[in-house]
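DNA-directed RNA polymerase II subunit RPB9, Allomyces macrogynus. Tokens?
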Amino acid sequence: MMAVLVSNNLLYPREDRVENRLLYACRRCGTQEEALDACVYRHEIAIQERGETGRLRDLIKDRTLPKASKRCPECGNGSAVYFQSRANHKDATMTLFYVCNNEACMHQWSSDQDQEDMDEVA
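Tokens:
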């Protein structure tokens, strides 16, 4: 969301549907001004499913990611961080991706692989 600072108030994008134009408006006082550019940018941060070692190290140290008591298939460590895939189509199943908390290992696997392992045991 793009905001412009005017007299210590943030102006947020607002659509004028009658005149079909983009405005910036203050949520407190109602001040409005027409946008110079009709494009509003949205910044999204996506976690890549496969990444570099540095990114994985950042993932396992990220305190905002939930931790699971999952045994790593590579080193046997009993803890991993996990995050959900961001599938783009509506028929996709929810997949969780795990990263081993052991800095020497940092193995990645998914909940799909867990299901395959369970199928082999059954």
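The beta strands are 4-6, 9-16, 21-26, 32-34, 67-68, 80-84, 96-100, 108-110.
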